[in-house]
Model the fold of this input.
Amino acid sequence: MLKFIVKRLLISIVILFFVMLIVYTLMHSLPTSYVERMARELATKPGSQKSAAQWLVELNAQYGMDKGVIPGFFVWIGQAIKGNFGDSWYYSIPVVDEFNKVIWNSFYLGVAAFILEIFIAIPLGVVAAKKQYSVTDYSVTVVSLIGISLPTFFVATVLKLIFSVKLGWFEISGMRGRDFASLTEVQQFFDVASHFVMPIITLTVISIGGLMRYTRTNMLEVLNSDYIRTARAKGLPERKVINHHAFRNTLIPLVTIMGGSLPGLFAGALITETLFAIEGIGFASYHAMISGDIPFTMFYLSFMAILTLLGNLIADILYAVVDPRVRIN
Done:
């Protein structure tokens, strides 16, 4: 098992190295106007003692932009390994500091949506498989296909129209109400929580479809297995056949998928956070990217690559844990 984990970890490190090289190459190939604009802004700030030309030289040297792609990449990654991604050009503070300010909002949003997704999609997928070709099965299939097909912005817009414009239950966007400062701590908590309701519903609606279909497909495959027919032939109650034998084996691929999704809880939801003005990592990255904030963009793309590789690594490990055949091989 240890050899398996070490092998996967080394492969992930190699992949991450080349992904970060690609990220740096793309940023290095951008027009110099982004860096020049930032140099001019820094030169015009009150108290600045450097000219735009001096700032331009300093910024290029800081991120290795004055060198070739390969030498510049090693300058940048050497600082990145130390946790120094430079200062954000849009937020005017270190990139890591801005990341620390917003990441937990994304995490809370992701955790709530993830929990709802599990408790809604998996039971419905199991029920649909148990009652194949019934009205229940067709209903679950329709709901899952709707969830898969609807784009995020459409779901968010419909929720805003119904719950904000028509019913007036929630604020249309933002994280705090107008009278937030005058509320007690408990009231402030519920005020912020109310602003998270529609984003959480949006993420849940667009994510349950895939997991629901995946659960149904795997459950049907297990229910058609020989050992399930043997259990039924022995006269075991259907409830025990489903819950004790079938569902446990259905969990093998499900655990892999859910485990691989855990790092994604920190990834944020760029579209959802931006539509609802939730100050998470996705919202911060969107505004950084559209303003040409190269340091924050490079950090965000590297961060997403790390989360993706970490998710795949966790999925591989969990698959080896739940399936002895993988450990033996």
